Amino acid sequence: MSGEAPGRRRDAARSRERLLTAASELFGERGFDRTTIRDIGRRAGVDPTLIARYFGSKTLLYIAALQAEAGEAAFADLYEDERLREVFDRADRRGPVPLLQVAVRPLDDPAAQEATRAALHTRLVEPLHERFVREGTDRPRLRAELVAAAMTGVLLGRHSGAFDELAAADPGDLIDLLRGTLLSEDQGRHPRCRAPD
Amino acid sequence: MSGEAPGRRRDAARSRERLLTAASELFGERGFDRTTIRDIGRRAGVDPTLIARYFGSKTLLYIAALQAEAGEAAFADLYEDERLREVFDRADRRGPVPLLQVAVRPLDDPAAQEATRAALHTRLVEPLHERFVREGTDRPRLRAELVAAAMTGVLLGRHSGAFDELAAADPGDLIDLLRGTLLSEDQGRHPRCRAPD
DNA sequence: AGGTGAAGTCATCGGTTGATGACATCGTCC
DNA sequence: GGACGATGTCATCAACCGATGACTTCACCT
């Protein structure tokens, strides 16, 4: 018969998948450096040496996990209510996602660093940039990077153990707060809030 | 004679000081984990094993460096123009300071984590909190943590290599941008910018 | 049924880290 | 000047890391 039986004792595709999932979780929770291939193997219930076989190295597994997450795409223009909500929900469920950690501290590994930087721009900075360009906002790229960086700080701060209330706060409340300030719709034209003329 | 000659070949106080300075710099540049005691010794021009003698361990040296920086106190209420400027200047000169890194990712070492968390609150969150309380802002503690976290994202993002324009931007421009949004004076009372009635 | 290659296991390598204790050297004080 | 404590140097340890290659075990096909 075909090799698709789910209970197979030996199943390369399944092992590969489990490694990828475990890696994605752990990289998100602890970051790249603090995650060991032995940790990944343990969580996946798979021998860690298979990482080398199926992905080549820890770095390449990281990049693969990054690309696998790209499909789920919980990122986009943060000014859309639904997107912003998704970003918070996802961060709550999955921990602080490798993507965000690079926004805040470079990785030692050059390949991993560059792959993450690229993904961060595609999925977070670029949508913001396009919106600012569309709206004719001043300094659109700088502003997109600024908003992305600030939002990263908030998302990561919720899981850092350094901010108690921020961690406990309801995502909806946070979104309301952010929308009134950082994500204020008319930023760039009104340096301060004032009466529209 | 007394033991205060500056050119002494053996001088515990001087070695201690050099270790402390080098540690402060490196912890700021690379964070706690990625800084090795050998790195610190090399930069200080002092044998790394003296760290154990003078401070007890890498962790205790980290905590000592944290407290030594507290004296310089470039932190405070971010709504004061001068303070905000200082924060940016300092981050540009010294790199992203250990304090900020904990706002974004917990440390493995529990003692180091807690010491940093406490310092972060004292020097960044608490001044903001007091201001919000003074102004009668809604949810002052949450709001202080939110602003601190967002600001941390911006400051760290400038050195992460992930945001080109943010890294290259003039601090003054950034402050202007932030003041119009995240640090908007009347946040908390006007969820959106609109005409005052 | 038996062979063959894929899938999984295991021992181990070289490198790095924080820490430790033995040792050498210098300065000071009697 | 000689002894003793402070200061600095060195070799080394145990733990952990990513990686590798040899080995075993299974599934499938003829």
TrEMBL record, chains A, B:
UniProt keyword terms in alphabetical order? DNA-binding
Pfam name, any one: TetR_C_16
Q: Which residues bind DNA?
A: 36-55
What InterPro entries does this protein's entry cite?
HTH-type_TetR-like_transc_reg, HTH_TetR, TetR_C_16
Residues in domain HTH tetR-type?
Answer: 13-73
Keyword DNA-binding appears in the UniProt entry: yes
Q: Which PANTHER family match?
A: HTH-TYPE TRANSCRIPTIONAL REGULATOR RUTR, TRANSCRIPTIONAL REGULATORY PROTEIN
Q: What is this protein called?
A: TetR family transcriptional regulator
This chain's source organism reads Streptomyces poriferorum
